[in-house]
């Protein structure tokens, strides 16, 4: 096979129950010029046997086995072994819809300024048992162009990792996934955005994002909420240094214990709080660690402050955006949603 246009990289670990369906979905793609590079991360189930059988039967499938080193090591090994102009990520428990590779490659072909292409994803779990995760997936499907992705980068991870396709030169210039006590996919997105990489999505469902109970994001401590907010705080502080005209001072919307715990991570990076703002009369009027808790109506005029909204309850983000918008605050200029 000549050099493929697209390499699909797939880290695999004990995924014998799902990898067959994932591979079959890739082999059913409408695009022809692609390869699949699977790296087995020291599985102790039938995963290596399955990968070996697919490689024997299908020339576009390549695989290798490594000692168990974790998903970052396996993902980066697959990237290092790939040959395509574009490099896609695929998890071994997800399903690529037939036009995924063709549509994302077409987006990158037609938009030379875009370095990372995503797509809409279909939630593959139980919307009853996993309602929060389903809402998150629905939210990601509203964040489509570069401006929206950039503006919402500190709310949540706006481009699901298994849905991405990137230019090889971006990997070479800005680096692949990094090891650390943080979610490596979110850190890569924040790092690339900080470096100026433009991102966009194909506005069509091209991936079924399954949510099995053994998914790493549900079980590994580096994917817990504290780790997520810790890496967010590091990149957010640097963003504020470049974009907040009142740096290092911000006003924080929300005064609850959870809000304060997450916002306090910014203090380690030199950010200072002028005030917390809330609607709860039980909180208003108090002073927390020297910071007053004021009513939301006491937020200064747009040219006198920069606000960070840490309120994340259902419907609250829209309410705050509406409130601030009516008072002349523009997202990205006078305030940001960061939860």
Automatic annotation (TrEMBL):
Residue ranges constituting the Glycosyltransferase 2-like domain according to the UniProt record: 7-171
Keyword line: Glycosyltransferase, Transferase
UniProt keyword Glycosyltransferase present: yes
InterPro entries: Glyco_trans_2-like (IPR001173), Glycosyltransf_2 (IPR050834), NAD(P)-bd_dom_sf (IPR036291), Nucleotide-diphossugar_trans (IPR029044)
GO molecular function: glycosyltransferase activity
Family: Belongs to the glycosyltransferase 2 family.
PANTHER family: GLYCOSYLTRANSFERASE, GLYCOSYLTRANSFERASE EPSE-RELATED
Protein name: Glycosyltransferase
């Amino acid at each position: 096979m000549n050099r493929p246009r697209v390499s699909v990289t797939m880290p695999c670990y004990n995924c014998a129950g799902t990898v067959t369906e994932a591979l079959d979905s890739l082999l059913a793609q409408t695009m022809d010029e692609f390869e699949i590079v699977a790296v087995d991360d020291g599985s102790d189930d039938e995963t290596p046997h399955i990968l070996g059988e697919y490689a024997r039967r299908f020339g576009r499938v390549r695989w290798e086995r490594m000692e168990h080193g974790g998903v970052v090591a396996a993902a980066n090994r697959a990237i290092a072994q790939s040959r395509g102009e574009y490099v896609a990520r695929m998890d071994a428990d997800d399903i690529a819809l037939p036009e995924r590779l063709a549509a994302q490659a077409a987006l990158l072909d037609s938009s030379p300024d875009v370095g990372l292409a995503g797509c809409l994803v279909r939630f593959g779990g139980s919307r009853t048992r996993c309602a929060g995760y389903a809402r998150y997936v629905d939210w990601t499907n509203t964040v489509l162009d570069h401006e929206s992705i950039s503006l919402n980068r500190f709310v949540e991870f706006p481009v699901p990792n298994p849905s991405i396709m990137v230019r090889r030169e971006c990997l070479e210039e800005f680096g692949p996934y990094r090891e650390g006590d943080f979610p490596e996919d979110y850190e890569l997105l924040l790092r690339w955005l900080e470096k100026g990489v433009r991102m966009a999505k194909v506005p069509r469902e091209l991936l079924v994002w399954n949510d099995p109970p053994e998914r790493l994001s549900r079980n590994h401590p580096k994917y817990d909420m504290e780790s997520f907010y810790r890496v967010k705080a590091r990149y957010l502080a640097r963003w504020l240094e470049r974009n907040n005209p009142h740096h290092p001072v911000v006003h924080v919307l929300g005064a609850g214990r959870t809000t304060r715990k997450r916002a306090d991570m910014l203090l380690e990076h030199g950010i200072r709080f002028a005030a917390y703002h809330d609607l709860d009369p039980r909180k208003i009027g108090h002073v927390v660690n020297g910071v007053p808790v004021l009513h939301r109506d006491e937020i200064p005029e747009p040219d006198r402050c920069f606000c960070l909204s840490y309120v994340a309850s259902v419907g609250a983000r829209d309410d705050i955006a509406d409130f601030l918008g009516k008072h002349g605050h523009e997202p990205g200029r006078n305030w940001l949603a960061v939860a």
